[in-house]
Write a structure and sequence with these properties.
Blueprint (H helix, E strand, L loop, with lengths): L11 E6 L3 E7 L4 E3 L8 E3 L1 E4 L5 E3 L1 H4 L9 E3 L9 H9 L4 E4 L5 E6 L9 E4 L1 H19 L5
Antiparallel strand pairs: 1-2, 2-3, 2-4, 5-6, 5-7, 8-9, 9-10
Length: 150
């Protein structure tokens, strides 16, 4: 099956936002195609890295930084959605990145920043924001795969 070019009336895009990996597929009414990146890798690691300057990386690029910068690389963020710090305290202590209490006791992921050029020294992300960064990459991948402008 060749790559889709745009969405037809019977087209369906499916997203599996997984804890470990995320997958994007396209169904044309008859068959299904996994939409990969420019290297045709179908699985997108559900990993986000936040660099010192606040630059956000998703997928393989983020995963590659996990050993060098464990406090900046968020994996398994989906497990934190809807959880309070009280119920996550033991699990949060095992994570290499910092988990703090946010509004209404919900967890936030605290990423250190460099504080240069007026930037803060850290930024707190909700687990939903981390998942949103992954979904934004999936959105970009979908449009790229179908040759459509975003």
């Amino acid at each position: 099956m060749e790559r889709p070019r745009g969405l037809g009336p019977d087209s369906i895009l499916g997203i599996d936002l997984g804890t470990t990996n995320t997958l994007l597929s396209w169904f044309d009414g008859q068959s299904t195609l996994i939409l990969g990146d420019h290297d045709d890798k179908g699985l997108l690691p559900s990993v986000v890295a936040i660099l010192e300057d606040g630059t956000e990386l998703v997928g393989e690029a983020a995963k590659a930084l996990a050993l060098q910068h464990p406090t900046r690389v968020v994996h398994s963020g989906k497990r934190l959605i809807g959880r309070s710090l009280t119920e996550m305290r033991v699990e949060a202590e095992r994570l290499p990145y910092s988990v703090v209490e946010g509004p209404s006791g919900q967890v936030r992921i605290r990423i250190p920043l460099d504080g240069k050029e007026g930037r803060p020294t850290f930024k707190d992300y909700s687990p939903e924001e981390i998942s949103g960064l992954i979904l934004r990459e999936v959105h970009r991948r979908a449009f790229d795969s179908m040759g459509m402008p975003e």
